[in-house]
## 1
Amino acid sequence: MKATKHHFDLIIVGLGAMGSAAFYQAAKRGLKVLGIDRYTPPHTMGSSHAETRITRLAVGEGIQYVPLVARSHEIWKELEEKSGQPLFLQSGGLIIGAREGGARFHGTSTDFLLKTKSVGDQYGIPVEFQSATAIQSRFPNLRIQNHERAVYEPGAGVVLCEDAIAVQLQLGRQYGGFVHFNEAVQRLSPHRDHIEVSSTINSFRAERAIVCTGPWINDFLPASKLDLFRVCRQVVYWFEAESLPDFGSDRFPFAIWIGRQLGDFFTVFPAVKNGIKGVKMVTEQYEESTSPSTVDRRVTAAEVRHFYDNFAAQK
């Protein structure tokens, strides 16, 4: 739906995971809302693609996030009922670390496995410690070392991130929301009683605006705030499996390995039925910064070999 007038209650800039969710909720509440994206979402140019994202209730990063995740699980169910599309796959999830503890993750100061279990216990979320032997027996496709253990959350799983974006944009438009695709916003100018949003094509006014531009966020910050965010290139890998159904979400959980340092971090995802034909795996790097306009989107053979030798072949 294209906008017919240029004044809105709310304008959302960027329609990836966060922007599409805000667009749907605003339209559902009856606001006159416009969503703008420089591409046609869901797309592969930002950070909301690659098929799946992990979701878990026992959030070891902080107990304050549990109500937010719990609410998101309610929303996934609501969206599934309204769209008739599966969006949340309850595969279960493992957080794996050294048996003697000490695993740090995402800025936590205590052992991440213990923190995850503590959060689960405080909120009554079913989570349990499992030994390497128990994990290996239950999930034989995972190679767990004897010095490792895991916290298992059966209610965790993965969200089909690109499908979730598409569904929320579709439903938001059905509620009366407007979208402009392939239109880059260049400037936001706050005034006393409105915000002016200028794109490469149009100029709009709104009572409020939400910026959900991911790696493009620095385009909208003052020079004094440019050090708040860094954009780092992350690579997603898919590897062939001898029996891909054995990695399906009905048999295989996501597994996050927490190492002693960031370079040891590694995650494997359940395969999606009728999705990409392979097992998805990722690690993280924050040593090199980039920008969405200069990032190298090619994955080299050397990168694939290094990842396979150091992560996939061992797990």
## 2
Amino acid sequence: MHTKQKLSLMPGWTTEILINAPQAKVWQKVTDFANYKNWNPFVLDAKADFEEGRKINFLEDLQQFGQHWLSAKFLAIEAPCSFIWEGYLGVPFLFKVRHTFTLEALSNHQTRFRQQHENSGLLVPYLALRGIYVVSHQGYLNFDRALKQACE
């Protein structure tokens, strides 16, 4: 893994996939956090009160960096189109992440699913150089493919 590749993901990334399923079906699957463990290879478990201002706790599999429980808060929910959560490690100025999920109905039977991941804080360069974002980015690509398979 090259330093340039590691640093390119430092500010964040976007993943996107076309799912041949109605928006409502994709929304139901991606917001059924209790069942993530049944289909999601990256977020192995999740517990959430799916309301703005409430918490989500989830277990990510960062491969060689181990499995880690993270906690975040839902900032916005616009069913069935999008939701945003934000979390931090220790205190927000050290490391903060904002994650936006967008579901765009392209037809009655096709949905564009997009994840936007934004990093900020003093620890971001250190985490980038360790390669954590390369592993996390791949995890979200795997999440997208597994969601597509689960919905289709």
## 3
Amino acid sequence: MIDLHAHTTISDGTYTPTKLVKEAKRRGLYAVAITDHDSIDGLDEASEAARRLGITLVKGIEFSIAYGKGRLLHILGLGIDPDSEGFKHIYLKYRETRSTKLEHVFEALRGMGIDISHKKAIPHIIGGFMDRQAIARCLVAEGYAISIRNSWTEYLDKIPYIEGELIEPEAALDAIHAAGGKAFMAHFHLNIGLKDYSDKEIRSRLKELKDMGLDGVEYYYPSFSDEDRLRLADYIHEFGFIKSGGSDFHGANRPHIKLGIGEGNFRVPDELLKNILPDKKETASA
């Protein structure tokens, strides 16, 4: 059993990287991917835990990308080498640029009557750059939100992104490939996906992303319906996509989702890993 979509405290999960790897081991997973939002800052810690426990860690990231008017897509990068120079060049430039685009978020929060400043959020930065995750942690610390998820649903999700705050599709795909990874569209059926597009438009969008370098789609996801999987199977056949899958585990922020098993009857086949890490030895730090 494997799980190729999970989040830690580095982004919006409640398990530290070490605790998440321990949970994967406890649940009998063969491999787990850590795919924190726009961040690789938990991968070193997770790698050390994976080595100690003898579990395969698939290093990953989940990029939030600007796509169309007011639309976000989540693109998973799996099997990446975060130390590769090509990846670091794109990733660090993106993180630095985004950190300069957040004053409008603080202004919007002040308009909601929330006394949160850049200075107050600085202690909540992870990885050296200000981002919305740091602001979310600050909202919790200052008592404006009861959880990270609540800080997003009540406040941050209501504040539109501005130009430059999100990575562009080509840059995200280039970064993943520069790191030797594979790029997958996550949860196509959600608003942070292709929800509400017609089937014709979805095919057009997938063709566009395929031409940019998209390698596959998330085929296994806890909230997919039978119809969703049938549609995905058709898209996979048409575009030659490879499959990925994961629970989108967030710990206590999504308590109904358990690592590796979703809501209890969810499984991701081990054999998917062969297409994602075809040229890598499957070690405890793959």
